[in-house]
């Protein structure tokens, strides 16, 4: 418990650090909200016009003043107003988050349900043709970029079968589960397949390690069935690296999967952040990155806690 | 277990996709439209991006409009007249014109709208086109009189711009322009979720008559390959396309039709005459002679477009073959380089924006190889659009590959670059007495044929002085299902004829 509290205490410091870096980074890039809105037409503005637009976008004050204004707003839950959406940043983020969360969960589900069994399968047939087959498949899966997989899926479905999931607007699961899953399943497969390959490879090598451990030999010599040795004795311990990998991947996915969202036209967090950066919607970029960083930290903490649950030898408390 | 799971996955995928595809076909009277880039805001006076104008022009109306031949036709105004001295422009408003909040469009709204554009606090880029306005008078509810400081023929064409739309005076007073979209156009904005979707419903009170569809549902599909796929499956009726590589695939689809409109916007290699050695006329002319414009068009844009001189509006444009060195002439180019003392060539950096236009990188590469023939070594620097715009506005480049917007009137199109106090002097870095005088003459002259002669001379001079190397104009593409009828492609890229489009 004290471990959790200690970790939670570090959160605010990390978040402040992240917010300062993002705040500066996005402002260091040439161009601002005005050139983003007007393009080259911005050259037609008089200095006074430019000044009043700067006030409109909230970029008229010096950086430290802008940061302080934004930072003090945080304490009242005010992340600022997005100029593109004309709405509070937090509500824009929360509208996009369910999609991103669902996509991340589905992709993980697909990746783990393919990757873990495939990894175990390969490990138990080490260096035999079946192992080689799995490893080649995993290699191909890992090295094919998701935009290729996505575009190929879309092309085959639309040109070959004349079907395609509804694109553009997102239907939340609680409104229409079928419509929702119809929209989400292909993006989830696209994301999941690539990740399944890494899961397979990590599971395989971890299983090989564990299977040569003494306690596995002990279990075998006690007469435990092969099935029980693999699934009950070996696998839980082999899962530690898989959990690490999945935790990091899940954390990334909660930041949005830009390419897959782009291809399947899903309005998720990733595309939102991308558009916000292109539009120089400073408040939205800052708010979104903060939100993503917080998610990442929470996921990381949960992963560390999961280690202890999986492998009692790992102790978190320290002496 | 794995194989069972795979069957489960396969079966559910098939069922779900089938169901969601069926669900997509619900309302036939709505036009389902897709585009890759969404509007960035709703203020018609502030938003100048192509993608924003395509949404806003369906909601708002200016005083006058352009037809497909770029002739000025009635918008909110039914008639207009310049006074004999060219210093007064009077509009009669359509008594049927109504805002979507039910209020009639009156001269007070027109006055308030133009005053808002002219007010520097608004930050309207279009203000630059209206500096000759001295006063705006509204003698009665249906008449507006613009008094001008000097004769200004192109002001009427500027007023066709969606950025000069008329908005309700009451909304200006309430400060809600840009948060609520209330115009007098064919469609009302019912819902807008930026970068995802928008819903437009027909405006029953539209002065232009009944619309052909009950509404338009717009989906933002950022990848144009996905737009094509969605059209192939009948999920989308109508789409706006930017990339010639995607657009040229449309005719392969039996159910789809591609619409092309030659655009006014021009692809150009901008030289910076403030930097050595581009300050030498001979060097600029050498570059002009070394470039094979047709080859740039064919390679970078699959031949989708026409080689162009500086002026792109058909009425004013010259035959490109009559312009200086429009036929590639490497020998002449080499001689010009040698005359300028650069027989061995030189090195320069060319900037281009990533994906904007989609052909930018390819254009830069073709130009790089063409200019290598006269010893000019180009270093290509690709930039994110906003970084590019910032660099471009500062004039901080040797050369720039650009797609610049075109206007129906050459004065409005070019006074910003080639008059001595043009707003974008800093970008063109080229001041020239002859060009300045020709533009001023063209502005004051009201007789169309005389204007044509003035601008023909301007076109010729500009090509010969070669501050920039004009390359080609491309097409504006829209794709549609064949049962969509009545769409008229426009050289401005406008989608305004969607007001009359029907679905058979």
From TrEMBL, chain A:
Q: Which domain of life is it from?
A: Bacteria
Would I find Transmembrane among this entry's keywords? Answer: yes
Q: Which residues cross the membrane?
A: 12-29, 103-123, 144-164, 184-202, 238-264, 284-310
Q: Could you tell me which residue ranges the ABC transmembrane type-1 domain spans?
A: 97-303
InterPro entries on file: BPD_transp_1_N, MetI-like, MetI-like_sf
List the subcellular locations: Cell membrane
**Protein name per Swiss-Prot or TrEMBL:** Peptide/nickel transport system permease protein
Q: What taxonomic classification does the UniProt entry list for its organism?
A: Bacteria, Pseudomonadati, Pseudomonadota, Alphaproteobacteria, Hyphomicrobiales
From TrEMBL, chain B:
Where is each Solute-binding protein family domain found? 71-423
Query: Organism's domain of life?
Result: Bacteria
The residues forming the signal peptide are: 1-28
UniProt-annotated location(s) = Periplasm
Keyword set, alphabetical order: Signal, Transport
**Principal location class:** periplasm
Q: Which InterPro entries match?
A: Peptide/Ni-bd, SBP_5, SBP_5_dom
Is Transport given among the entry's keywords? yes
Q: Which Pfam families match?
A: SBP_bac_5 (PF00496)
Protein family (similarity comment): Belongs to the bacterial solute-binding protein 5 family.
What PANTHER family does the entry give? PERIPLASMIC BINDING COMPONENT OF ABC TRANSPORTER (PTHR30290), PERIPLASMIC OLIGOPEPTIDE-BINDING PROTEIN-RELATED (PTHR30290:SF10)
The protein's name:
Peptide/nickel transport system substrate-binding protein
Q: Which organism is it from?
A: Aminobacter ciceronei
């Amino acid at each position: 418990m004290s471990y959790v509290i200690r970790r939670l205490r570090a959160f605010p410091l990390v978040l402040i650090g992240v917010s300062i870096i993002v705040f500066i980074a996005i402002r260091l890039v040439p161009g601002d909200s005005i050139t983003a809105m007007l393009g080259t037409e911005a050259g037609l503005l008089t200095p006074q016009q430019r000044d009043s637009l700067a006030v409109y976008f909230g970029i008229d004050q010096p950086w430290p003043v802008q940061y302080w204004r934004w930072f003090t707003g945080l304490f009242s839950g005010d992340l600022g107003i997005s100029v593109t959406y004309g709405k509070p940043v937090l509500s824009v983020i929360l509208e996009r988050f369910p999609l991103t969360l669902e996509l991340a969960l589905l992709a993980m589900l697909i990746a783990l349900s393919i990757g873990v069994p495939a990894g175990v399968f390969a490990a138990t047939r080490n260096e035999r043709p079946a192992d080689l087959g799995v490893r080649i498949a995993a290699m191909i899966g890992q090295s094919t970029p998701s935009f290729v997989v996505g575009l190929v899926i879309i092309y085959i479905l639309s040109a070959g079968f004349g079907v395609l999931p509804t694109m553009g607007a997102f239907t939340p699961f609680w409104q229409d589960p079928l419509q929702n899953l119809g929209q989400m399943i292909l993006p989830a497969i696209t994301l999941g397949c690539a990740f399944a390959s890494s899961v397979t490879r990590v599971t395989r090598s971890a299983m090989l390690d564990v299977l040569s451990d003494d306690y596995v030999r002990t279990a075998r010599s006690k007469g435990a069935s092969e099935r029980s040795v693999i699934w009950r004795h070996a696998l839980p311990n082999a899962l530690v690296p898989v959990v690490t990998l999945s935790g990091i991947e899940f954390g990334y996915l909660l930041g949005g999967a830009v390419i897959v969202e782009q291809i399947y036209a899903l309005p998720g967090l990733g595309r939102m952040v991308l558009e916000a950066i292109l539009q120089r919607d400073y408040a939205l970029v800052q708010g979104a990155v903060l939100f993503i960083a917080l998610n990442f930290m929470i996921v990381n903490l949960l992963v560390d806690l999961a280690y202890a649950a999986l492998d009692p030898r790992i102790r978190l408390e320290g002496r | 277990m794995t194989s069972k799971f795979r069957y489960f996955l396969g079966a559910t995928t098939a069922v779900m996709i089938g169901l969601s595809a069926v669900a997509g076909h619900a309302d036939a009277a709505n036009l389902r439209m897709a585009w890759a880039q969404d509007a960035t805001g709703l203020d018609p006076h502030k938003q100048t991006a192509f993608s924003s104008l395509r949404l806003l022009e369906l909601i708002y109306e200016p005083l006058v409009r352009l037809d497909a031949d770029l002739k000025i036709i009635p918008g909110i105004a039914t008639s207009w007249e310049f006074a004999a001295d060219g210093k007064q422009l009077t509009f009669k408003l359509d008594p049927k014109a109504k805002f979507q909040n039910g209020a009639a469009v009156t001269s007070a709204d027109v006055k308030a709208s133009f005053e808002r554009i002219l007010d520097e606090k608004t930050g309207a880029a279009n203000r630059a086109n209206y500096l000759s306005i001295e006063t705006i008078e509204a003698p009665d509810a249906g008449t507006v009189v613009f008094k001008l400081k000097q004769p200004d023929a192109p002001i009427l064409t500027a007023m066709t711009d969606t950025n000069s739309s008329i908005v309700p005076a009451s909304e200006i007073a309430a400060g809600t322009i840009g948060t609520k979209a209330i115009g007098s156009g064919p469609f009302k904005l019912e819902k807008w979720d930026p970068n995802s979707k928008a819903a437009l419903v027909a405006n029953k009170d539209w002065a232009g008559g009944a619309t052909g569809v009950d509404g338009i549902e717009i989906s933002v599909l950022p990848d144009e390959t996905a737009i094509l796929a969605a059209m192939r499956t009948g999920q989308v009726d109508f789409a706006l396309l930017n990339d010639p590589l995607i657009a040229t695939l449309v005719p392969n689809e039996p159910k789809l039709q591609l619409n092309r409109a030659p655009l006014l916007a021009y692809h150009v290699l901008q030289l910076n005459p403030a930097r050595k050695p581009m300050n030498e006329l001979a060097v600029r002319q050498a570059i002009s002679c070394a470039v094979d414009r047709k080859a740039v068009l064919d390679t970078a844009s699959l031949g989708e477009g026409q080689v162009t001189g500086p002026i792109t509006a058909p009425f004013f444009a010259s035959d490109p073959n009559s312009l200086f060195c429009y036929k590639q002439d490497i020998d002449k180019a080499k001689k010009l380089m040698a005359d300028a003392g650069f027989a061995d060539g030189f090195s320069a950096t060319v900037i281009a924006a990533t994906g904007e236009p989609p052909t930018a990188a390819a254009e830069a590469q073709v130009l790089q190889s063409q200019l290598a023939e006269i010893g000019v070594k180009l270093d290509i620097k690709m930039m994110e659009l906003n970084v590019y715009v910032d660099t471009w506005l500062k004039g901080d480049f040797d050369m720039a590959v650009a797609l610049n917007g075109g206007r129906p009137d050459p004065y409005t199109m070019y006074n910003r670059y080639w008059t001595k106090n043009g707003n974008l002097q800093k970008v063109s870095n080229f001041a020239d007495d002859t060009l300045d005088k020709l533009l001023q003459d063209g502005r004051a002259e009201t007789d169309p044929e005389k204007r044509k002669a003035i601008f023909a001379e301007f076109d010729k001079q500009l090509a010969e002085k070669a501050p920039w190397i004009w390359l080609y104009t491309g097409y504006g593409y829209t794709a549609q299902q064949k049962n969509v009828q009545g769409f008229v492609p426009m050289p401005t890229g406008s989608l305004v004829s969607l007001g009359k489009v029907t679905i058979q």
